[in-house]
Structures are given as C-alpha cells and as structure tokens.
Amino acid sequence: MAERDDFEYLKTPLPRSEHHLVCERAAEGGYSMPTDYVRAVIARDALHVSDERLARSIAEGLESGPAEPFAPDFFDRMRERVRRAKQDPPRGQ
Questions:
Q1: What's the pLDDT band for 30 if we cut at 50, 70, 90?
Q2: Per-residue b or e along 21-50, where b marks 16 or more CB atoms closer than 10 Å to that residue's CB
C-alpha cells in the first residue's frame, strides 16, 4: 500500500442516486468503504487503458510489415551491453 504522503484527495459531489449505487456496490462487493470500491473501479479502468495501449502497439507492429530476422549474435551483444552498463558508472554525474 502507498505511504500516506503519496495520496492526493479528490472530493467529488455525486447525485444522490449515484452515491447510493456506489454504497450498494461497495457493500455487495465486500468493500469496507465506498471509497475502496471507487479505487477498485479506477484500478480496473487503468488496467483496461493499459490493455488498449498494448493492443494498439501490437496492431501497429503487425501493420508495419514483415519482421526482419535478428543477426545471430544480437542477443549476445545485448547481454554484453547490459553487463557493461552495470559495471560502468554513469557518465556526466
């Protein structure tokens, strides 16, 4: 769970019917407070947004044309770059 300092508060007036809906859904879902339900809804929405972004990226990749094969030593070179980056201190600091 996030530290208390990591929170920002949002007070949102709701029409009475929406307030009752939130309270009902919170109780039905086993949430201890309506705000817990609202946070869960927001978290589900954030996952949905991430899924949409991933789907768009995959579609863009598929539409970009046929894949080109990597050079045989591609992954070996990438591993070596990572090893060097871990050993070398950052430059300019």
A1: very high
A2: ebeeebeeeebeebeebbeeeeeeeeeeee
